[in-house]
Design a protein that fits this description.
By secondary structure, the protein is mainly beta. Helices cover about 10% and strands about 45% of the residues. It has 2 domains: about 140 residues, Nuclear Transport Factor 2, Chain: A (Roll); about 140 residues, Beta Barrel (Lipocalin). The radius of gyration is 23 Å and the shape is elongated. The N and C termini lie far apart (about 50 Å).
Amino acid sequence: MRSLAAFLSAVSLLVLNLAPARAGDAEVVEAINKAAAALDQAFERQDKAAVKRLMTADHLAVTPYYDGPQTVDDQLASLPELKYQQTLVGEVAFSFLGPTAAMRTFTAKLDGSFEGKPIPRDVYVSEIWANNNGAWQEKFYQVTSLKLGHAGKFGACKDVVGTYLTKNFAKGGSSENFTSRSVISIGRAGLMLFTDSGEGGEAGFAPFTDARGTWRCISDDASAPKLRATTLDFTVPTADNPHAQIGRLDFEIGYDAENKTIKASATLYLIPLEDNPLVPGELTEGRHFEIAGQRVEAQ
C-alpha cells in the first residue's frame, strides 16, 4: 500500500503552504486525498487499469528501488514485483502550484520488497497532482531514502535493550498457563536472539534450533516504546518430520519501563528449506502466540 488509507481522516492536520489560503482549497485537498487513496488501493490490489487511470500519460516515478525514472508503462510492467506497506509519520503537507496543480509531501515508513530485495524503510515522499478535465491524476512520484531518525533502530527503544526471561502462551490465553519459556536478548546493535525451552519439539512439531534475527524501533514515544523483530531458526529432521524447515518468528513487542517487562505477540511460520523466508506477502498462515517477559538483571 503506497499510503495509509486512514490519511483521509487527517485532513485537519494538513499544512497548507500558502498564505492566505484560497477559497476552495479544502475541497481541492479532499479531492486529491480521495484520488491518492484510490491510487494507493490500486497499487495494493495490483489493479493495472486503475493505476493507469489515476496517473497522467507522462507520469514519472523516481525511487531508490527502481532502476532510474519509470514511466507509466515501466511501473505497470514491474507492478507484480512491488510488495510493500506504508505508514505515514507525522503530518502531510500540501503546496498549491496553480489552479490545476498541487504538491503533496510526507514522511513514511515502508515495509516490503522490489524484485525480492528489501526497499528503504524511512523515506520522504513527494507527489505532484494535476487536474485534467475535473479529475485529479498523479503526475510525478518521488521517494527519497532518509537516515534513521529519532525512532530509528534505537531512539525511543534504547531502554528496551537487554535480556528477558519469558512465558509463552496461546493467543488470548493466560500467562499462567504457559506452553514454554524463552530467553530473548535484544541487542544494541540491532541483533535479537531467541532460545526456547520447547526446542526438543512436541506432537506435530519437530525439534528446532536457537533463533537469531534483527529488530527495529517503531515508536517515537520513549514512555511506551514498541519494536518489531524477526528471527530465523531451523527445524531438526526426525523420523516423523524428515524434511528440515526454516522457522520465522515475527514479533511486535511493547516495553513497560517502570516494571522492566515486555509484552509481545508473535507469529511462527514454517517454510520449506528451499524457499525464501524474507519475501513479504508470501508466507502462509502462521501459528500465533503471546509472550510476557521480565528483564534479567545481573546480581
